[in-house]
Amino acid sequence: MMNPLYKSDCYCTNLRRCAAFISDFYDKSMKKIGLTIAQYYLLINLSGMKSANITHWAQRVGLDRSTMVRNVRVLEKYGYITLTEGHGKTYVLTSFGNETLSAAIPVWEKLQKQIESFLGKEDTAAILRISAKLQMQEIVAFQYTQ
Q1: Rounded CA separation 60/56 (Å)
Q2: Residues 87-92: contacts with CB within 8 Å, 24+ apart?
Q3: Potential cystine with 63: which of 5, 21, 67, 139 (Cβ 3.0-4.6 Å)?
Q4: DSSP-assigned states of every residue in 10-22
Q5: Is 10's pLDDT higher than 70?
Q6: Among candidates 36, 55, 26, 48, which has minimal Cα distance to 93?
Q7: What span, in angstroms and rounded, lies between the C-alpha atoms of 89 and 86?
């Protein structure tokens, strides 16, 4: 029998636990395609941008530049992206990257539906609403008033 998880009142602890659970949930299904959910997120964003240099791509996905560089190296190593003409190091999806992304999209959509079915529309909407609020720049202003 597993020990019950300590129920914490700490917002940070609870958000971290939820993020870890959700990431594992998505990663297990994405694994058969060869992606993690983080890699899927980077590729789907690059697909929408058509091409992007590291700085702009990092800004769009909310990563610092050094973290983005590490992620780009992995995506390039696996053949999902390649350098192209542009300002700075500019990347595009390769044919393999596009094929992988096309296979991953229905898996992601199914996972989204499973989460919504488990939590319900009201709670999934609350996740998006709370996430948007926490990711807004106003949180920085709040931080400095303390």
Answers
A1: 6
A2: 87/53, 88/53, 88/54, 88/55, 89/53, 89/54, 90/51, 90/52, 90/53, 91/46, 91/51, 91/52, 91/53, 91/54, 91/57, 92/46, 92/50, 92/51
A3: 67
A4: -HHHHHHHHHHHH
A5: yes
A6: 48
A7: 7
The contacts of residue 124 (CB under 8 Å, 6+ apart) are 115, 116
Amino acid at 58: A
The string of pLDDT tens digits covering residues 28-37 is 999 999 999 9
Q: Token pair for residue 32? A: 């058969």
β-bridge mates for residue 91, sequence order? 52, 83
What is residue 84's DSSP assignment?
Answer: E
pLDDT in tens, 59-110: 999 999 999 999 999 999 999 999 999 888 999 999 999 999 999 999 999 9
Residue pair 29/107 in contact (Cβ under 8 Å)? The answer is yes
- pLDDT value at position 4? 72
Query: d(Cα 19, Cα 3) in Å, to the nearest integer?
Result: 21
